[in-house]
Amino acid sequence: MRFFHLSDLHIGKQLYGYSLLEDQEWILNKIYELIDKERPDGVLIAGDVYDKSVPAAEAVTVFDRFLTKVSQLEPKIPVLIISGNHDSPERLSFGAEILSRQQVYVAGSCPQSENEHLKKVTFQDAWGETDVWMLPFVKPGYVRKLMEESRKKTDREDGAGQGSYGSQEADREPETEREEIRRDYNETVKFLLERENIDTARRNILISHQFYTAGGEIPKTSDSETITVGGLDQVETACLAPFSYVALGHIHRPQSMGRESIRYCGSMLKYSVSEWAQEKSVTEVILEAPGQEPVIRLHPLKPLREVCVIRGTLEEILEANKDRVSEDYVSIVLTDEQELYQPKEQLERIFTHILEVRTERNWKLAKEWEDGQEEETQTDPKLVFEQFFSQIQGRQLLEEEAEVLEEVFAKVREDEG
Ligand SMILES: [Mn+2]
């Protein structure tokens, strides 16, 4: 079996106020072309299809066009989609039953009652069957009722109350609230996986959108994920043992967790400046005979506009780019020693999508100046200004500048008096 693994499309996302829709439609077209060329057996989308739980109409249209094109390929290529923390489970599930007839499978919500189960799509090849399990993004609260019912049922059946979930709590050391929440997350995911009949003699794949840790090792994040502060929602990868491959979403930097075959494929575009050096790609997973390690291939994605950091003096940057206009999303760090006249306006003639212009030196000096202020309180405004000026500009006031300053202060005193 060969699968494409995608996640964190975040359709509708903005970057520093710029709409990324055009970039997203462009990259989804590239992904479509790759699907058309490579013809995988299935496409797995591991959550965060949209950036907001109520996506803009334009965002829905962009995803609709992508899905429609993929579903028109013959022979059909099934697309399996789970919800991420940014998606609304119910909205994402709209029309799921109808879509499944086109082999577009959507798992938006978690099981809510005893007879509801995780969605599973079975694929067939020369080595037999492969089950792909779909676990939508889950918080303990989403399935608490179901867990309690199931615990009661197990307790009744066992008589003595030896249920698998939490019934031995009394023997434990009292937990901090933090530990309790973390245990809750782990037990929730474990509960949802253990109540399925996973036949480990076959090949099994899981699609999931959670913050997984491997033996305490945590994934490397970027600035664009919405991560719970303090890592309360961490889930240990131990519960993923039955799966030959785990297609993860949530973390935007591509990486494996614990073993090669538990993998975050990363977002399809760079969604923060901190990701400027990352290479985004489509992950291809090849599963052969049962028990054999999957082979992973990356297809790099080249965006319409890059996200990059440009560092140098204003003159250097203007000179190096003088013959072009760049549409890339740029974060510019100016290293000039002197105060500059309207640097952004000058840079805008070359760069049409400036995310930010930072002046490295001034940041540093302004901070030093601020820190210095705490130690000695200067009350003479002229001296305060002279001090500030010399720290920012790196020189003393010229005589004529001092005169202008003197005039300004005289005028202010006059107005005040
Ligand atoms: Mn995400």
Automatic annotation (TrEMBL):
Gene3D superfamilies: 3.60.21.10. CDD domains: MPP_Mre11_N. Residues 1-104 form the Calcineurin-like phosphoesterase domain. One of its GO terms (molecular function) is 3'-5' exonuclease activity. The keyword Calcium does not apply. One of its GO terms (biological process) is DNA replication. The keyword Hydrolase applies. Residues 149-159, 169-181 have a biased composition (Basic and acidic residues). Keywords: DNA recombination, DNA replication, Endonuclease, Exonuclease, Hydrolase, Nuclease. Heterodimer of SbcC and SbcD. Belongs to the SbcD family. This is Nuclease SbcCD subunit D. It comes from Blautia faecicola. The lineage of its organism: Bacteria, Bacillati, Bacillota, Clostridia, Lachnospirales. The gene is sbcD.
